[in-house]
């Protein structure tokens, strides 16, 4: 395993993300609540480029005929069929056994690296 530095910490503000290629893999690098998260840019449903989907929130549990929206900025919505995934874990909101791969991220001297 090696750390591949792909960005400067100062260039990725909270709530932003970039898509990078590392060792032939397309990976979305997200900054959320001050932390960095790296997710495989691949939807486990039918293989869409997941990280090209919008960062958004989702509907929350609620009573019948009531719609509550929350978790703004914590979710990626797949651009093909709308499956939603947590940025922090890569897990699908519908079934936590379905997930996209998550990579370890290291920050060293202001540089952000993905461990592969
Ligand atoms: S390919 Fe992502 S929801 Fe279908």
Structure overview:
This protein is mainly β and 116 residues long. It has a single domain (3-115), classed as 3-layer Sandwich (Rieske Iron-sulfur Protein), CATH 2.102.10.10. 0% of the residues lie in helices and 49% in strands. The protein has no helices and 9 strands. It has strands at residues 3-8, 17-22, 25-32, 35-40, 55-60, 68-77, 84-86, 102-108, 111-115. The strands form 2 sheets. It has a 6-stranded antiparallel β-sheet, with no helix packed on it. A 3-stranded antiparallel β-sheet has the order 5-6-7, with no helix packed on it. Strand 3 and strand 4 form a beta hairpin. The mean pLDDT is 97. Bound molecules: FE2/S2 (inorganic) cluster. Residues 43, 45-46, 48, 78, 80-81, 83 line the site of FE2/S2 (inorganic) cluster. Keywords: 2Fe-2S, Iron, Iron-sulfur, Metal-binding. It holds the Pfam family Rieske. Residues 4-114 form the Rieske domain.
Secondary structure elements and pairings:
Layout: E1 3-8, E2 17-22, E3 25-32, E4 35-40, E5 55-60, E6 68-77, E7 84-86, E8 102-108, E9 111-115
Antiparallel strand pairs: 1-9, 2-3, 3-4, 4-8, 5-6, 6-7, 8-9
Protein name: Rieske (2Fe-2S) protein
InterPro entries: Rieske_2Fe-2S (IPR017941), Rieske_2Fe-2S_sf (IPR036922)
Keywords: 2Fe-2S, Iron, Iron-sulfur, Metal-binding
């Amino acid at each position: 395993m090696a750390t591949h530095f792909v960005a400067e910490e100062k260039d990725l503000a909270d709530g932003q993300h970039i898509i990078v290629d590392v060792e032939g893999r397309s990976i979305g690098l997200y900054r959320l609540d001050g932390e960095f998260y790296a997710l495989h840019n691949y939807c486990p449903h039918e293989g869409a480029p997941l990280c090209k989907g919008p960062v958004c929130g989702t509907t929350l549990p609620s009573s019948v005929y009531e719609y509550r929206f929350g978790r703004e900025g914590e979710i990626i919505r797949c651009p093909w069929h709308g499956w939603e995934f947590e940025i922090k874990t890569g897990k699908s909101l519908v079934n936590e056994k379905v997930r996209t791969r998550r990579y370890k991220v290291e920050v060293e001297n202001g540089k952000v690296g993905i461990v592969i």
